[in-house]
Amino acid sequence: MLVSSIVRFNAVNQMNNSAFGMMQASNNLLNAANNKNNAFGGEHDLAMLNKMDKKLSMDLLTNQLTYKLAYLQEKMSKKHENNEKHSFSALA
Q1: According to DSSP H, which parts of the chain are helical?
Q2: pTM of the complete model
Q3: How would residue 86 be classed by pLDDT, with cut points 50, 70 and 90?
Q4: Tally of CB atoms within 10 A around 42
């Protein structure tokens, strides 16, 4: 039971970290789009903006995938913990 609880806490922690990463990537994308007129000028800077957009989009997708995997891990460990409680109570 202790191991499954630790796994669940780790999964929840990973979910929180991924959600924070998604928020940061989203905010950075919005800031880059809002400041494109002031901070970027010319063809070279538009290429840099495109590069930033690709990187931040990949960060967002990576964090979303990590969040979903951690959610499923937490869900499975919760199910395992509940099954473990039932089997333990049956023996007691």
Answers
A1: 2-34, 36-39, 42-91
A2: 0.71
A3: low
A4: 8
What single-letter DSSP state applies at residue 70?
H
Sign of CA dihedral 63, 68, 69, 75: positive
Q: At what angle do helices 42-91 and 2-34 cross, to 10 degrees?
A: 160
Residue 77 contacts residue 11 (beta carbons within 8 Å): yes
Give the model's confidence band at 7: pLDDT under 50 very low, under 70 low, under 90 confident, else very high: confident
Nearest to 6 by CA among 69, 80, 88: 80
Q: CA torsion 26→28→31→32, rounded to 10°? A: -110
- Calculate ∠ Cα 68-69-70, nearest 5°: 90
E-state strands within the chain: none
pLDDT tier, 22 (very low <50, low <70, confident <90, very high otherwise):
very high
